[in-house]
Amino acid sequence: MIEERSLQDGPRGACRGLRPSGATIAVLIAVLAALQPLGSAARAQDVEHDPVPLVRRASQNELHSSNGGHPYRYQLHKIDDGKITTKEIVETKDGDVARLIAIDDKPLDADVQQAELDRLNNLAAHPEVQEHRRKREQEDSDRANKMIRLLPDAFAYKYEGMVDGPNGQCYRLSFQPNPNFTPPDREAQVYAGMAGELWIDKGQERMVKLDAHLIADVEFGWGILGRLYKGGSILVEQADVGDHHWETTHMKLNLTGKALMIKTLSFQTTEDASHFEPVPAQMGYQEAIKMLLSDGNGRVAAR
């Protein structure tokens, strides 16, 4: 039987089931900020002079993001330590539902296909399982929101110019740890060892790319104690997938470390999301399961 836990991955941060570590969750979720327009191109001068207000607006608007009310259906292609999977994912008010549709870019064989159908039918018959998952996702989201509030103060930002993004011109900011920032808890300690670049779309002021690198070993918490080693990297990209709705389209993790200072951690993961289609805002998870089951062997899209 395929593990239920492994089929809930989604690119919109670890709240979608990735869960590699608390440190990774915090940074991935933080990139999904929803911002309001600056008002005019002249404000670019303000960004050049002081980028922090822009980042502060980003973090505040993420906490009030309306993306959750506009669910989508999409495909997630994932390479995790050499294993390649493709999943069809439907976002619902009850949490995400996923169906495995390909392994190693090939359709599932008969046994795996049947196991997946059995899993979905069993999930439809047990709402308590989905409710447990939804609560777990919400807990992760709440923790991530705590980290988002710290973004403007955790780093020192510098305006580096304008670059072309997927939907137009972007502000390109570099960031380094802010020496005056005191992490309020263990989860926030990860920020002390990160540096990189943050791109923000000029027209819609959405975060387009976070390219972060570990410039020092960092401790992390998030329910488990551990350390991530210097040299790791996190790349997250997002784009407007239609009607000014932004979703994460690419993520790449290259992280190593230890959990509880004993167990070795290694995350070598690449995710690409595509074929986005809106679904009804009030769709429940059981309706999403029916939608996924109605596709027969799954709508494996050409890559």
What is the approximate shape? globular
Low-pLDDT parts are: 1-42
Mean pLDDT equals 81
Total count of helical runs of at least 4 residues: 7
Number of strands: 13
Characterize the biggest β-sheet: 13 strands, antiparallel
Structural class: alpha+beta
The separation of the N and C termini measures 27 Å
Based on CA atoms alone, the radius of gyration comes out at: 19 Å
- Element pattern in H and E: HHHEEEEHHHEEEEEEEEEH
The percentage of residues in β strands lies in 35-45%
Tell me the helix content.
25-40%
Write a concise synopsis of the structure shown.
The protein has helices at residues 22-30, 44-49, 52-62, 110-125, 127-148, 151-154, 285-293; strands at residues 72-80, 83-90, 97-103, 106-107, 155-165, 168-177, 194-201, 207-214, 218-220, 226-228, 233-240, 246-259, 263-278. The protein is an alpha+beta fold.
What does this protein look like?
The protein has seven helices and 13 strands. By secondary structure, the protein is of the alpha+beta class. Strands 1, 2, 3, 4, 5, 6, 7, 8, 9, 10, 11, 12 and 13 form a 13-stranded antiparallel sheet that branches. α1 packs across α5 and α4 packs antiparallel against α7. The N terminus is likely disordered.
What topology does this entry show?
Elements: H1 22-30, H2 44-49, H3 52-62, E1 72-80, E2 83-90, E3 97-103, E4 106-107, H4 110-125, H5 127-148, H6 151-154, E5 155-165, E6 168-177, E7 194-201, E8 207-214, E9 218-220, E10 226-228, E11 233-240, E12 246-259, E13 263-278, H7 285-293
Antiparallel strand pairs: 1-2, 1-13, 2-3, 3-4, 5-6, 6-7, 7-8, 8-11, 9-10, 10-12, 11-12, 12-13
Helix pairs in contact: 1-5, 4-7
